[in-house]
Write a structure and sequence with these properties.
The complex is a heterodimer.
Chain A: H1 8-11, E1 12-17, E2 20-25, E3 42-43, E4 52-58, H2 77-95, H3 99-122, H4 124-128
Antiparallel strand pairs in A: 1-2, 2-3
Helix pairs in contact in A: 2-3
Chain B: H1 8-15, H2 24-39, E1 45-50, E2 58-60, E3 70-79, E4 85-87
Antiparallel strand pairs in B: 3-4
The chains are: A alpha+beta, B alpha+beta.
Chain lengths: 143, 102
């Protein structure tokens, strides 16, 4: 059904509690009841087909074939190798009977873990950013 | 101009330079774990539409209850009487007087 809200920005709002999105409105009647009078927040008053458009940060799709591309920016594809190696080196450290091999594997795991974290957190914004960087050069006003 | 991207095969072959015996299924699991962790750092933006129900306040956005995998909602629009999606303000103080439970 179509919407009857002329200016939803003025009489509607949203908020989130846990895994639930609340859509509320102040639209109401002149009733003295707080449950229906205009101005009080209450549930959205009408059914609107595709009425809500949600913009969100999503989880990347999983991969399940050799030909799949990881569902993240290609600048971060090589970093996945570091994540996988970090986990494999931890496995190796835990299963090896030789303390020297374990210690070396643990160190290598930390190296790859750091590279993964740097790529994702320290330089992640730069890798994912599509609008960053210099847009225009303005020279000094020499007048 | 070609874009440099790595397939799962490329990633596995790089890993197998040092771990030639690593089982393929385990590597798939680790790659998917990496993607899940990468998703926590705002790597992918998506949009979804939902239909409202009269007098229903709550809409499920959990990974299991909804058809989409949402990590963080950053904007919600509502369709106005002209059919345009208009940005709604986010209510910071969500302790409203009437709390519907449907």
């Amino acid at each position: 059904m179509a919407s009857n809200h002329n200016h939803p920005e003025g009489d509607m709002a949203w908020f989130i509690v846990g895994d639930k999105l609340a859509i509320i409105t102040t639209k109401g009647t002149d009733s003295s009841s707080v449950h229906s009078k205009a101005g009080d927040w209450k549930a959205i008053d009408e059914a609107v087909t595709d009425g809500v458009l949600i913009h969100y940060y999503a989880e990347p799709n999983t991969v399940d074939a050799l030909t799949d591309y990881p569902d993240i920016d290609n600048a971060m594809h090589a970093s996945i190798v570091d994540y996988v190696k970090a986990k494999l080196y931890i496995d190796k450290a835990g299963t090896s009977g030789d303390p020297n091999i374990s210690a070396t594997a643990m160190n290598l795991s930390m190296v790859h873990e750091k590279q993964w974290k740097d790529s994702l957190i320290k330089f992640g914004t730069r890798r994912r950013d599509k609008i960053g960087g210099l847009r225009a050069v303005r020279t000094f006003d020499l007048r | 101009m070609a874009v440099r991207r790595l397939t799962v095969k490329n990633i596995i072959s790089r890993v197998r330079q040092t771990f030639p015996e690593a089982p393929e299924n385990y590597l798939y699991n680790l790659i998917n774990d990496a993607l899940l962790e990468a998703g926590l750092y705002r790597t992918k933006v998506e949009y979804a539409k939902a239909t409202t129900v009269a007098d229903q306040m709550w809409y499920d956005i959990s990974d299991t209850g909804s058809s989409v995998d949402i990590n963080k909602v950053f904007r919600v629009d509502f369709k106005d009487s002209a059919g345009d999606y208009i940005k709604l303000p986010r209510l910071i103080d969500n302790e409203i007087l009437k709390m519907d439970i449907t």
